[in-house]
Amino acid sequence: MADFGAEEEKGEFGSRQGEERRTIIQPSSLEEPKFNKLKEVLVEWINRTLKVEHIVVRTLEEDLYDGLVLHHLLRRLAGVQLHVEEIALSSDAQVRKLEVIVTALNEALEMDEETAKWNVKLIHSRDLLATLHVLVAMARRFQPDLLLPSNVSVEIIQCEVTKSGIKADKQTEFITFQSNSSEELERESNKECPIDELFKLEAHKIETVKKAILHFANKNMSSLGLNVTDLEKQFADGVILLLLIGQLEGFFIPLCDFFLCPAASSEMLHNVTLALDLLIDRGLPVQSVDPQDIVSQDVPATVKVLYYLFKRHKNK
Q1: Crossing angle for the helix pair 239-249 and 265-281, nearest 10 degrees?
Q2: Each residue's pLDDT tens digit, 40-70
Q3: pTM, entire model
Q4: According to the 3-state scheme, what is the secondary structure of the chain?
Q5: What is the pLDDT of residues 200-243, one digit of tens each?
Q6: What is the pLDDT of residues 141-174, one digit of tens each?
Q7: Nearest Cα to 301, choosing from 219, 238, 224?
Q8: Which strands sit side by side in the sheet containing 165-174, from one edge to the other?
Q9: b vs e for 121-159, b when ≥16 Cβ sit within 10 Å of the residue's Cβ?
């Protein structure tokens, strides 16, 4: 799959209204830090969302044009089931698939086709601006707590072929706007975790916090008839962690999505990874936690995850 590079300066040439009108992103906009940060955040979000389906996106331009990724995102985020072929190889098949997906997507987003800043032709032609618009719209609708860089804009040139010649119009197009709630979440996630500071202190203070978190976990697991006595060992396979998340966040995790009795370390890693993905999707700042650390019974990693659950739900 192609990486993002200088080719993008000429590759953003996409038709918006037939072949008579085209939009070009100014090359300087492609180098803006906030623009590239937005792309990075969206790629990470997609890969996190589709990790359990083993789908990996490397570039937005090259990996979304055929509809496969959009199809899976729509299914996982909005629960929309579409009867389309999984992998469309020919260009015609990809366009047909995209027509079904875009129609369903616009309905899910309650977006009118006339006002949407994307369409089948733009997406299939690898139009980066249209792709960004559709992904931002999906994130805002289906995962509003996702931290997107605010006020991201690009300079564009709209070229229109008329009978009298070529008409060019330079404009600024915004992809994201200001969001106070997102800024607050971003500031919160950038704060140093108190657990990191805790493990720099005396052992008895660490034990006090562990006991408080243990009591919190057992209080919320009692209805399931489960009791935790060892934080590191009993959370290492991810089963109790997933059940606790379900209890606290108020949803049921289908048993087919995880290993209820994991025997291999790979099964444990699957469970823990799923648990962390769920927490990240719910807005908990646990991106820095490596799933393998919890499987390996790393105390700080396990306590950090449980601390954030405790912090959110302690007063409920």
Answers
A1: 20
A2: 999 999 999 898 888 999 999 899 999 899 9
A3: 0.53
A4: CCCCCCCHHHHCCEECCCCCEEEEECHHHHCCHHHHHHHHHHHHHHHHHCHHHCCCCCCHHHHCCCCHHHHHHHHHHHCCCCCCCCCCCCHHHHHHHHHHHHHHHHHHCCCCCCCCCCCHHHHHCCCHHHHHHHHHHHHHHHCCCCCCCCCCEEEEEEEEEECCEEEEEEEEEECCCCCHHHHHHHHHHHCCCHHHHHCCCCHHHHHHHHHHHHHHHHHHHHHHCCCCCCHHHHCCCCHHHHHHHHHHHCCCCCHHHCCCCCCCHHHHHHHHHHHHHHHHHCCCCCCCCCHHHHHCCCHHHHHHHHHHHHHHHCCC
A5: 666 666 778 788 888 888 888 888 888 888 888 999 999 999 99
A6: 888 778 888 888 888 887 777 777 677 778 888 8
A7: 238
A8: 14-15, 21-25, 153-162, 165-174
A9: bbbbebbbbbbbbbbbbbbbebbeebbbbbebbbbbebe
The one-letter code for the residue type at 46 is: I
The two structure tokens encoding residue 172: 């600024």
Joined tokens for residue 10:
């000429």
